[in-house]
Amino acid sequence: MGTIPSETIEQIAAANDIVEVIGSYFPLKRAGANFKALCPFHQEKTPSFMVSPSRQTFHCFGCGAGGSVFRFVMDYEHTDFPSAVRKLAARVGITVVEKSRGGAPEEDQQREARRLLLKLHAEAAERFHNNLLKAQFAGPARDYLEQRGINRQIIKNWQLGFAPDSWDALLKWALDRGYTRPQLLQSGLVKLRDESDTRSEIYDRFRGRIMFPIHNDVGEVIAFSGRLLPVRRSLGEGGKNEEGIAKYLNSPETPLFRKGNVLFGLHKSKRPLIEANCAIVCEGQIDLISLFEAGITNVVAPQGTAFTENQARILKRYVDEVVLCFDSDAAGAKAAEHSLDALLQNDLIVRVLELPPGEDPDSLVRREGKEKFENRVAGAQDFFDYWIEREMEAADVSSLGAKLQLARRLAETVSRVRDPLMRGEVVNKASARLGVSPADFGTLLSIKPARTASAEAPQFARAQAAPGPRHDIAMLCLLALRDEAARNFLLAQNWREILEQVPDAEILIRILQSELHPDDPASLSAFMASLSPAEEALVSAWLLQKVPADAETMVEKWWLGIRHAVLRRRLAAAQNRIKLPELSTGDIVNLQKQILDLQEQLHELSQPAGAADN
Ligand SMILES: [Zn+2]
Question: I want to staple 381 with a disulfide (CB 3.0 to 4.6 A). Which of 143, 227, 386, 430 is the partner?
Answer without folding.
Answer: 386
